[in-house]
Amino acid sequence: MTTPLLVQALAALSVPALAGATALGLRGRRERAGAAAGEERLRGRIAELEERCAELERTASCDPLTGVWNYRHLQLTLDREIERARRAEHTEQADGPRPLAVLMLAITGFDAVVAEHGRGRAGAVLRDLAQRLAMEIRRADTLGRYGGEEFLVVLPDTGAEGAAQVAERLVWSVRRHLLLDWSSGPRESRPATGNGLTAAAGIAVLPDDGTHAAVLLRAADAALAEARAAGGDCWRLQARHAGEPDRPRTDRSEQATCTPDHGPDAERDRSGKAGSLSACVGRDPFAQPVVSHTPATVAGSRDVLS
């Protein structure tokens, strides 16, 4: 075959080969573009599912009425903190379990709120007060609704002295908190006798009062019963600690802030640690009655006690 005929034959054969290669290239490009688009959609779907899972987990751990942590989350947190305190006992840096305090707080006076405003508005008052209490503790602490008008506070790295400071501050906050006002006019001045609500608090400390969640809760409940028997508006430690702090708590209207803790390093600077506990906590204390059960986040530590 002569050279011109060979060139012509190769040219004729190369046309379909070139067309096939071009078609394959276009097909591969479309497949890669489709795969990239599918991967992007998959990533978006995964992000959406993760966000929904986080929201469901948050909702499952939050009390729908008050917006703070619920009983289930309190139990899990207490078990985790007790295990963490026990592990520290076997480290070289600690001679025993790390301090851990449990504070049980019971609020009284809501019967009058329910009688005057109804259960719906009384629930808004309870939520408002719970948010205020949440702003009175450290971010490392956990406050949740234990049941009814009772709250539980888990205080890691806190001994009896630090827990007594927290109890003092919470009891004072309940008595002096400015309740929601549904009137259209200017807010009335706070009565000299307080807002009609009082609180009693009981404290138990690990390891002195027990090294198990059920034992600590039982000890805190017993201390709470002592505070209630004393007339309320006070706090009590377990009987073994009663020598120092078990004195009558009268009017503390001048103690707007807690005095600095001079105990162990782990308990210092408690008074400067106010803030949100978690995504569960939040809404302005002067907000209108809550109609949504969606947990929010505290915007900041605002002084509303005037």
Q: Would you write up a description of this structure?
A:
This protein is α+β, with helices and mostly antiparallel strands and 306 residues long. 44% of the residues lie in helices and 11% in strands. The protein has helices at residues 3-61, 71-88, 110-134, 160-176, 213-229; strands spanning 100-108, 142-147, 150-156, 198-206, 234-237. α5 links the parallel β4 and β5 (234-237).
Please outline the helices and strands.
Layout: H1 3-61, H2 71-88, E1 100-108, H3 110-134, E2 142-147, E3 150-156, H4 160-176, E4 198-206, H5 213-229, E5 234-237
Parallel strand pairs: 4-5
Antiparallel strand pairs: 1-3, 1-4, 2-3
Throw out a few tags for this protein.
11% strand, 5-stranded mixed beta sheet, 44% helix, 306 residues, alpha+beta, disordered C terminus, 5 helices
